[in-house]
Amino acid sequence: MASLPGGGLGRALSWLEGAPAQAAVPFRDPLPIPPQLTGARLDVPIRLADQQILPGEKTRLWTFGGSFPGPTIRRPAGRRTEVTFHHELPKSVGELTVHLHGAHSRTQFDGQPGGLTGSQPFSSYCNIPLDLPSHVSGNDLLIEPGGRKRYVYDLTEDGHPERAAFKWYHDHRLDRTALHAWHGLAGMWIVDDAVEESLPLPDGPHDLQLAIADRSFGHDNQLTDPFTNLRPPDDGIVGGKILVNGAFMPHHRVKARRYRLRILNISQFRAYDLYLAGGAQMVQIGADGGLLPRPIRRSRILIGPAERVEMVVDFAAARGGTVELRSHGRRPGRNPYGSHTYDGPLMQFRVDSARVPDRSKVPARLRPLPKWTRHVSRRPDHTWSITVGGLFQTTWLINGRSFDPAYCDTSPRLGSVVTWELHNKTAVAHVMHLHHTSWYLLARDGHPPPPWEDCLKDTFFLYPGERILVAGRLTDYTGKFVVHCHMLDHEDHGLMSQFRVVA
Ligand code: C2O
Ligand code: CU
Question: Counting CB atoms within 10 angstroms of each CB, which of 90, 208, 322, 449 has the fewest?
Answer without folding.
Answer: 90
